[in-house]
Amino acid sequence: MLVLSNNFYFMKRILFSALLFSDLCFSQETDSLDLNKKSDSVKIHVKKERIKMIDDVVITGTIKPVSKSKSPVNVEIYSQKFFQKNPTPSVFEAIAMVNGVQPQLNCSVCNTGDIHINGLEGPYTMILIDGMPIVSSLSTVYGLSGIPNSLIERIEVVKGPASSLYGSEAMGGVINIITKNALTAPKLSVNLMTTTWAENNLDLSTKFNVGKNAASLLSLNYFSFNEKIDQNKDNFTDAALQNRISVFNKWNFKRKENRMASFALRYLYEDRFGGEMQWRKLHRGSDEVYGESIYTNRVEAFGMYQLPLKEQIFTQFSYNYHDQNSFYGKTPYEALQKVAFAQTYWDKKLGNHDFILGLTFKKTFYDDNTPGTLGSDEVTNQPMKSPIFGAFIQDQWEINEKNTVLLGYRFDYDKIHHSVHSPRFAWKFSPNPYHTFRFNFGTGFRVVNLFTEDHAALTGSREVVIQANLKPEKSINGNLNYVWKIPVGDRLVNVDASAFYTYFSNKIVGDFDADPQKIIYDNLNGYGISRGASMNVDFSFSFPLSVNLGVTYLDVYQKFDGETGKSRQLHAPKWSGTYSLTYKFKNNLAIDFTGQFYGSMRLPVLPNDYRPEYSPLYSLANIQVSKSFESGFELYCGVKNLFNFTPKDPLMRLFDPFVYTINHQINNPNQYTFDTTYGYAPMQRIRGFLGVKYNLK
């Protein structure tokens, strides 16, 4: 409590001083940027009886820049301003503001997790940076931290399979993080934030020109949280301690005829810990005091180059190196992953047809000290070396002003799974500017890559059993999207509704129920279904109030051969949603009220578990007050987790984390084991935050 009170007092002093200083030194001006600006927004001029379209450019749906209104693939766009309504130290936390996208904690001790799209687990979500598959496999758990918010231009989200363009892992959807262009980025950008929990985050970026034709963007992210806090009194840290530093450098070049060229490097180091309050560094790897200690070193490189030819031919490449040294209690987990990717594609327009023809190559090296990399003799270490060759073709045919069709096909070859075919079809019908229909059909696949993504297998005390000859997962998906712009006075209500259906075969599932002391991985003897619907509504009133509401319904389950019932997917709430309200005052003061709500979701309980199998309805709400100044400064403060919600009993048998007495018939008749996978929401209670931003254009 002393830490909390001291930090709160510190924040109040900073806020008062900053406001006083700003009012004395800077003149005010209104920030004209709409925080709730949506793509495909429309301004209605009633007197002139015409519509002016403001159209954004999207990349993710078709691999090339295309106006959102003309794209047959539904792509959601979220600007940096959108995520600043609820400032966070990482993309993993920020993405919760997107309806239908759920950052899911996989461990209540070290607080690592992955991102679910429409109820599908993290391995089915592909994370791109500037169109490159940088964050995948092992890094889905640890690589989303440390991407500086100051360098993010926007985030594009595609829900549904995109394997015809991006190959394996893009079964559930794609999240593409678009970074700023060094040629047009601000000269200096600073964002400093602290909380009453003593969480400190710094985002710093600066741009410098090299001659007339090159510019470099250098960005730094530093996050520190070193206070052991245990408000629920279970003797375990409520939030994982972290020391993280990330350095990012991007180069953009001016070339003749606006040809593209860019190159970027990023380095990440993170020291993460969660566990018993008595833990110290000397206890790392011992069985004296339980702790989960994770050291991560990560290097990324990626770029694009357009060939100096009359034809539009592009080459893209990426490489990432991920080294992890960790202990979960006394269990070591050492993993090394190296992923190289290269892609060349030709963009050719013939009449109303826009063709893309491409070749890809991806090679993954992965090694760890788990059964996942054992040879067939179950003794010899056998690192995974998985080269995948791919070729794809796409035709976007603009039939007329109202109809656009996209046809795509991809062929991949893997030495283990051999040939994989991924067709794709999309159709957009827009009879007028107020109504747009989109229908998409496609297939997805994912090659076997187990331990790199399943953190649950590493925490707790369960034995992992992997069945032999796992087959690649496949999916068939269809979704229908409808965008309706409803005139209300001189403004529009924007309604974006979607319905989707996905059928999985050969789905790899972890059986937590058959044996309480084991997790058994095997291809599902049956099939999996993910279906549901979502809706987003946003409206800006004539007075300075903007509202954005989203709701998603999910029915995600597995059905086993020979059984009549179905098993609901873990951590997939039937109902969820997002809300965002922004009110702007005339004195450059703005108030943002944001949050998410989650309905009942199935949880990984143990046999005879005293904890409920389904979570309650809950909401994570935040409020922020911000004030901008003509000089480029902005002050903001607020409260996170306004309703003060935290899960109950996230840890099982926490007094015996090393499982010394699991078989004691008197003290443990139900054979409960230490388990960290039950938690479904952060354990951080209500807390304040304070920050300052500065941008020099």
Task: Summarize this structure briefly.
The chain has about 700 residues and is mainly beta.
List keywords for this structure.
single chain, Maltoporin, Chain A, 5-stranded mixed β-sheet, 697 residues, disordered N terminus, mainly beta
Plain-language structure description:
By secondary structure, this protein is mostly beta strands. The protein has a single domain, classed as Maltoporin, Chain A (Beta Barrel). Helix content is 6%, strand content 52%. Strand 23 (418-432) and strand 24 (435-446) form a beta hairpin. The relative contact order is 0.13.
**Domain count:** 1
Assess the beta-strand content as a share of residues: over 45%
User: Can you tell me the overall shape?
Assistant: globular
Strand segment tally: 37
The residue fraction in helices comes out at: under 10%
CATH superfamily: TonB-dependent receptor, beta-barrel domain
CATH level-1 class: Mainly Beta
Q: Structural class of the helix and strand makeup?
A: mainly beta
| Low-pLDDT regions | 1-53
User: What is the CATH architecture assignment?
Assistant: Beta Barrel
Mean pLDDT: 84
Give the assembly state of these chains: single chain
Instruction: Please tally the helical runs, counting DSSP H or I stretches of 4 or more residues.
Output: 5
**CATH T-level fold name:** Maltoporin, Chain A
First-last Cα distance: 41 Å
Characterize the largest beta sheet: strand count, sense, and whether it forms a barrel: 22 strands, antiparallel, barrel
Radius of gyration: 25 Å
